[in-house]
Write a structure and sequence with these properties.
Shape: globular
Helix content: over 70%
Structural class: mainly alpha
Number of domains: 2
Largest sheet: none
Radius of gyration: 18 Å
Number of strands: 0
Oligomer: single chain
Strand content: under 5%
């Protein structure tokens, strides 16, 4: 969580007039400490692996936004590779390290018993995404991401337990 909050604060510092650098670095330090603690545990679960890799990737992306610190970025990218290698050596299946052909098979058991999502929450999500559209028009990448978020919410509105997952899985489109 601290890695994501640090990345978000760094992005906000770049894209707004508010300086969140102190918060970004504070969360970064806590994320690195938490990652180091997790790496020191002997027996990792699949969920541990997912969390560690997510933290590594978020820290790497954050470092790519930090002014002139290519060394920090390369260190974090190397860390992503080292953690991935350790997970592979320990034969721990994580969602980041499976082949594209195995993704649906791997995720099926995790997605079968999802609870439904509150309809009011979905309505509020759709409304929030709509308010982002004018802010995202400056860059194609931002607009594409905003559209993907909108499509995701629309899919969950259809059925939060199945969405497009069931349709793609049943059609054999792996």
């Amino acid at each position: 969580m601290h890695a994501m909050l640090g990345l978000a604060a760094t992005c906000l510092s770049i894209t707004t007039s508010v300086d969140y650098t102190y918060l970004a670095l504070s969360h970064r330090v806590l994320a690195i400490k938490g990652l180091n603690d997790a790496l020191s545990i002997a027996n990792w679960t699949s969920s541990d692996g997912d969390a560690m890799l997510a933290a590594c990737y978020a820290l790497a992306f954050q470092s790519s936004y930090m002014n002139g610190d290519a060394f920090e970025f390369l260190t974090m990218v190397r860390g992503c590779g080292l953690v991935s290698l350790q997970l592979h050596r320990k034969k721990i299946d994580v969602s980041f390290s499976i082949s594209p052909h195995d993704h649906f098979h791997f995720m099926e058991s995790r997605l079968n018993n999802l609870p439904t999502v509150d309809a009011d929450l979905l309505k509020d999500s759709a409304s929030s995404i709509s308010t982002l559209i004018p802010l995202c028009r400056a860059l194609d990448a931002h607009m594409s991401f905003c559209n993907l978020l909108r499509e995701c919410v629309e899919t969950v509105c259809i059925d939060s337990r199945k969405g497009e997952w069931k349709e793609l899985h049943d059609a054999g489109q792996h």
